[in-house]
Request: fold
Amino acid sequence: MAERSLTLMAVHAHPDDEATSTGGVLARYAAEGITTVLVTCTDGRCGDGPGGVKPGEPGHDPQAVVAMRRAELAASCEALQVSHLETLDYADSGMMGWATNDAPHAFWNTPVPEAAERLAELIRRYRPDVVVTYDENGFYGHPDHIQAHRITMAAVELAGSPAKVYWTTVPRSAFEEFGRVMKEIGVEFPEPDESADMPALGLPDEEITTWVDTRGYGGQKFESLAAHASQAENIFFLQLGQERFTELMGMETFVRVRDTTGAPTPEDDLFAGLR
Ligand SMILES: [Zn+2]
Reply:
């Protein structure tokens, strides 16, 4: 029997989330012969529509947005050489408090055990050694990101733990560097909404367990992001240009929350202890 290759599974909320926080690891590990599985939980219908039309504005047609974003996701997977794309196709729930949160097929409105069982089925099929998702705040509080976190942690329990589970994060030092570069190149930084109840973003550097250098795959990561150029947040990142983007976003960082390998931390490889 042929030896099974190591497998990475990344669980994301929307089409495009794979690019910014895990585009580098998806590209790097695929290049190293590791099987990569991307699970995208929602259809992204609450995103910007063709021509930049915002959800709720006249002319925003959710079905057209879904079709556009599905094609973008396929192009992104091509750029990152993702081995298997799986979509759960829940309706994008929109931002916290939007009426779309309560839509019948909205991801946020789906009981965790129900969605977790579907993800557990994929874990049983692909048997990932490493699973990556968001922290309990979904990094920045988006309901679909929080739900992706919840169903992933539940699915891992149901399906038998992969050897390692990680949450994506950003070191605080990177935010400072990011702000500095933005100022330098005169790119307008979106003002944080002071009224929003936002969790603190990222972690102090010393709490980060895993720093993966993906700068050698910056071209692919940028290409993946460029595939999602219909979304305003991505256009913002694309303004950096590939070189600066890679410099700022080429180190992907994680917190290891489950581990059976005993690999010492800090580590520089999601597969440390497995190969
Ligand atoms: Zn998202």
